[in-house]
Amino acid sequence: MPLSEQQILNMKVKRKKILEAATYLFATEGYGGTTIKKVSEAATVSFGSVFTYFKDKEELFYTVVVEPLEDFSKQMLAFDEHAENPLDELKRMITNHIKIFSEINHYLQLVVQDIGQHERFRESFEKLDAFHDEFRGKVSVLVKNGQQKGLLEKQDSLIVATLYTSLLIGFRLNSTDKRYSDISEKVALSTLNIFGPIIK
């Protein structure tokens, strides 16, 4: 007998609660400190319910890292690397990225865990690494665009893109939510400098 619409909705809600609880626990207690029992208690579902959706803790961790990546990727890649005015596009891109990073915390902690233990979390790391390569590549093209138009200093565009991604992650991890919002506009202005804008 097929499931009713209400049953399907209930299952989606329960799965979402499990993922939210798991994201928080993996971020705050680490992979080793998180158990299925803790996740079920935090999500207020039965222990067995977790296994309805996820085979084991490893699959649950993979899901909380990889599933949000599609939406995150779309947001992060929403800039025009071939913009007519690359300097203006860089400013827009930086402001947007800082806003995105200001709204994530626990997810970013998961990403850092995954990268730090990439041999353990090989499959999810491959997804993160592929996104990182795509992102750096697109930023690099925008930088080259600015250099060709004489708006940015000549330097290795891929290195600049790598410094940029490192800055975003490092700044967010070193800031509380309040401290981040208080200085984010100043950070956006200073971040532009790593791209080497030429003052005329």
TrEMBL record:
Keyword Oxidoreductase: no
Recorded superkingdom: Bacteria
Domain HTH tetR-type: 12-72
Cited SUPFAM superfamilies: Homeodomain-like (SSF46689), Tetracyclin repressor-like, C-terminal domain (SSF48498)
Keyword DNA-binding: yes
GO terms for MF: DNA binding
DNA-binding region: 35-54
Alphabetically ordered keywords of this record: DNA-binding, Transcription, Transcription regulation
Name this protein carries in UniProt: Transcriptional regulator
